[in-house]
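Try this one yourself first.
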């Protein structure tokens, strides 16, 4: 992997990364970085779900995204889907949220509004602090990535990036 990275760097085949604020390095020392999913893996996962939705249609895609045993669950990654007005369409790990309007749900509504703004122009990232159920339910920094499917709905997923740091929303 290192050799491939060096090759791409020297060949000039790098892609500019999104402008995402990252916490200072000393904050990330608490948990080993190799316990986290890469940004590239997140993007590929969400893009494959978007492609699936565009190829197979909304109804079939939402059924697959809502399936806890479906093909769009991979470790900490899973696909969720929302309307642009804030109603949950798919959420395999919280099926009780499907059909609910969530923009009035305190912190969830706040980050969901920011997330929606980030995907309105096709795709985007959003950074937040969220409870990580795989690390003893600790509050951690989470990077989410979403893709607009059409004017009515979008889908996304997220990765934990380390211990929480102060959010601009706090």
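Now uncover the answer:
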């Amino acid at each position: 992997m290192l050799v491939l990275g060096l090759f791409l760097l020297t060949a000039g085949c790098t892609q500019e990364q999104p402008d995402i604020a990252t916490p200072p390095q000393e904050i990330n020392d608490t948990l080993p970085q190799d316990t986290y999913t890469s940004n590239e893996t997140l993007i590929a996962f969400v893009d494959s779900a978007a492609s699936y939705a565009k190829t197979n249609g909304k109804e079939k895609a939402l059924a697959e995204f809502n399936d806890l045993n479906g093909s769009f669950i991979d470790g900490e990654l899973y696909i969720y889907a929302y309307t642009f007005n804030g109603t949950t369409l798919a959420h395999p790990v919280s099926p009780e949220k499907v059909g609910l309007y969530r923009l009035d749900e305190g912190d969830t509504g706040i980050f969901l509004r920011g997330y929606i703004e980030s995907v309105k122009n096709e795709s985007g990232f959003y950074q937040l602090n969220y409870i990580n159920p795989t690390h003893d339910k600790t509050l951690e920094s989470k990077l989410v990535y979403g893709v607009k499917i059409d004017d009515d709905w979008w889908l996304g997923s997220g990765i934990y990036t380390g211990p929480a740091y102060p959010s601009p929303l706090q």
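Discussion: Residues 103 and 109 are 4 Å apart (CA to CA). The mean pLDDT is 80.
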